[in-house]
Every structure is written in structure tokens, then in C-alpha cells.
Input
Amino acid sequence: MNRLLVFGATGHVGNAIAEEAAARGYDLTIVARSRDKAISLSGITSQYKIADVLIPASIQGITSGFDIVISAMGKSVSPFERSKPGFRTIDLEGNAMILEDALRQGVKKFIYISAFQAEHYPQLEYFRVHQKFSEQLMRSGIDYAIIRPPAVFSAFLDMITLARKGMLTTIGPGTHTTNPIYEGDLARVGIDSIGLSNVVIDAGGQQIYTRHELNEIVQKIVEPKKRIKHIPAGLIKSILPLVRVFDRNSFDKMSFFLEVMEEDVLAPRIGMMKFEDYISARAGK
Ligand SMILES: NC(=O)c1ccc[n+]([C@@H]2O[C@H](COP(=O)([O-])OP(=O)(O)OC[C@H]3O[C@@H](n4cnc5c(N)ncnc54)[C@H](OP(=O)(O)O)[C@@H]3O)[C@@H](O)[C@H]2O)c1
Output
């Protein structure tokens, strides 16, 4: 059980998973949407396949010959990602297509990166599609592992750019807590799960922070002279119905951010890396 295919390897989580798998000696192939992107990962593996879940023909037979498929493939939650297809198309229909192929090709194990407490927010498209695909995977009969982080550190990289410009903003009081996990720590959990059967693993980091503390850490490291802005959550809520009419993807992302800002989102404390160290390294400080 050594031949491993990773979807989403050009993304933050998938890249960390690919690195971990290569370091542990798996016979690793990654999937990328273009040859250039695949080649950018040649330091990890030279074996790649080109596919895009928006092109169903590119998925046909892609999992043939592999023992394990890992999918960290999904639409980015970053507000700076502006592609047209929504979470349903990419995260649900796209992953369902990969799973169908894996079942047809006799793949032995499917590992999926979902989202912590996805079942808790059926009203939000982002969580709904992660949960729906997880349920589909659990019903499919294939041996599965579903890994559920609350947030990974890379999700906060946009904050470095905003902090440099003095545009970092705390929404509402920012007093609710969370424990994001370093994607490298999450990758270890993902690869460890190859040895486990039919599991759902929730995985957060060691440290618990309020949302405002996360902003303060980034601002202090990146540009301490600039100030964090504050915006009432009610103001964003008031414009959401209008956003929904004109831009469904932005609505889905904004509703997701608002919801998680207003609750404590705390997963089992598994990851070891500290957020402060990660941001310092990424900000070149
Ligand atoms: N980031 C978080 O805090 C967090 C928290 C909980 C759960 N998750 C989930 O974990 C998964 C990975 O997250 P991430 O932060 O690593 O996301 P990411 O950095 O945005 O990576 C997404 C990956 O999916 C690929 N992809 C997107 N559309 C595709 C398509 N049409 N066909 C083939 N590949 C496509 C991307 O390829 P390109 O490089 O070509 O765009 C990229 O490799 C997602 O399902 C996400 O919802 C993330």
C-alpha cells in the first residue's frame, strides 16, 4: 500500500501532505491543473498528472494504479480568490467525481481534508458541501479517513498583506477563540491516518487565541506602527443580503467568516508549531 495520489497538492494543505508523504518514502504522484504548477513541485516529486475537476474527462481513470488517494482539493476561502465556480461545484461535485473514479479503479483508501464541525453549520454552503462529501465518502464502502482542521495557519497569510497596508481588521469584539493548526502538523495527521481504518480526526493546534489576538500577532510582527481597524459585525451582516444577490461566492465566504468569528471554534490540540513562529517566518521577520 505505497502508491499515493494527492489532489490539491499545489494548495497549502495538499503541498504539506505531499512533502510529508515524500519524506516518508511513499511512491508519490501529485495532481495539478497545469504542467507549470506540477513542475513547481518537482522538489517534492517528479511524478504528476494534469487534471481539473471542471473538466470531467481529465478525471476519468486518473486514480488507476494507486492504492491511496488523498484529496485536499477545494475552492479557496481567500477573499482574493475570484474564480467563478462555487464551493458546491469544486468541493462537492469535484471530490465526488474523484471518489467515483477511485471506487471504479479499486483504490483501497481515500483520505479527505474536510472542515472541523462541518455538520454544525448546515446553513453555510462552505460547511454544507464539506459535510455532504464526507457523508458520501463514509457511505461509499471505501476505507476512509476524514481530517478536520478548524483553520490552518496558511489561511491567515492574507493577513500579512493586509497588516503591511494597515488594513487588518477585527470584526466585532474579536473575543471568540480558536486553535488553528500548522499545515505541516496537519499533514502528519493525514499521513498517519493511512494506518487507521474508517476514522474522522479533528485536529487543531496547541495554542488557543482570540480572533483579535491572531490579528495582533500578525500586526505586531509585520508592521507594529500600523493600527488594527475595527468593524462591527452588524455592519457586514446588514450588507450580506445585497452581496448574495450580486456575488454568491463572496456571500458564501463572508457568511463563513462571520459565523466562525462569532463562536469559539476549538478542536483537539494536536499541532505543535506556534502561530507566532509561522507568521515571523512567512513575513521574513
Ligand atoms: N485553509 C483552511 O484554514 C482550511 C480549514 C479547514 C478546511 N480546509 C479545507 O482543506 C482543503 C484545502 O485547503 P487549502 O487551504 O490547502 O486550499 P488551497 O490552498 O486553496 O488549495 C486548494 C487546492 O485545490 C486545487 N483546486 C481548486 N480548484 C480545482 C479544480 N477545479 N481542479 C483541480 N484542483 C483544483 C487548487 O489548485 P490550484 O493551485 O491550481 O488553484 C489547490 O491545489 C479545502 O477543502 C479547504 O476547504 C481548509
In short: The chain has a mean pLDDT of 96. Residues 159 and 168 are 6 Å apart (CA to CA). The longest helix spans residues 87-105.
